[in-house]
Amino acid sequence: MKAKAIVYTSNTGYTAEYARILSRETGLLVYSLEQARKELAAGSCILYLGWLMAGKVQGYDKAAKLYAVAAVCGVGMGATGSQLEDVRRTNGIGQDIPVFTLQGGFDGKRLKGIYKMMMSVMAKTVGKKMAQKPNRTPEEDDMLDLLQNGGSRVKEDNLNALLQWYYSDKAGERSPE
Predict the structure, then answer these.
(1) Continuous H helices in 55-176
(2) 147 and 123 in contact (C-beta within 8 Å)?
(3) How far apart (Å, rounded) are the C-alpha atoms in residues 67 and 163?
(4) What domains lie within the chain, and their CATH numbers?
(5) Checking DSSP bridges between strand 68-76 and strand 151-152, what pairing results, if any?
(6) Contact 6, 28 (CB under 8 A)
(7) What is the β-pairing status of strands 151-152 and 105-106?
(8) I need a surface site. Which of 19, 48, 87, 142 has the fewest CB within 10 A?
(9) Residue 176: its pLDDT value, please?
(10) Angle of helix 113-132 relative to helix 138-149, nearest 10 degrees?
(11) Mean pLDDT, rounded, for 52-69
(12) Is the per-residue pLDDT at 175 higher than 50?
């Protein structure tokens, strides 16, 4: 069964932006998880996108209880395609469900409450430690730039692996449970 919709949970807008791009590329309808609960039939086959916090794809557990998740995509600050096994393990996602990660961005002004405080502390401590590290990799330089200056890394090209999977013969073979 092919995915019928894209469902997402977004905190600062980067995941929502990817969901809209993915919708444009695939023609699938897109819903926030809150909207989907009202408008999408339980058991529908979906692609799920959620923002990452400490490897946890936010909203995935709720979405997996309501829908047949064909693929999971976590959006965070790390490089696209990184941390795949960590995300799979942290979220208890079986090997039968493809996992993708996308680099989103960081904007402390968009954060609220506890997340704003947590990221402020992380940006200062990790940023300071990373800034002092000699011989940083390009990925580490990018992360340091995000922590210090914020910004978006959302781009269509980051969706290439997900789109390649989506248009492959194996996409969406997962049936509702």
Answers:
(1) 60-66, 84-91, 113-132, 138-149, 160-166
(2) yes
(3) 20
(4) 1-106+152-177 (3.40.50), 108-149 (no CATH)
(5) unpaired
(6) yes
(7) antiparallel
(8) 142
(9) 42
(10) 130
(11) 96
(12) no
Sign of CA dihedral 30, 34, 35, 36: positive
Distance (Å) of CA 55 to CA 35, 73, 89, 95:
24, 11, 9, 17
pLDDT, tens digit, 9 for 90 and up, residues 87-134: 999 999 999 999 999 999 988 777 777 777 677 777 778 778 888 889
As given in the structure block, the two tokens for residue 42 are 């339980």
Residue written as token pair 């209880």: 65
Question: The pTM is what?
Answer: 0.84
Beta partners for 50? 9, 74
CA angle 60, 63, 68 (to 5 degrees): 115
Tokens at residue 169, please? 């013969």
d(CA 147, CA 139): 12
Percent of the chain with pLDDT over 70: 94
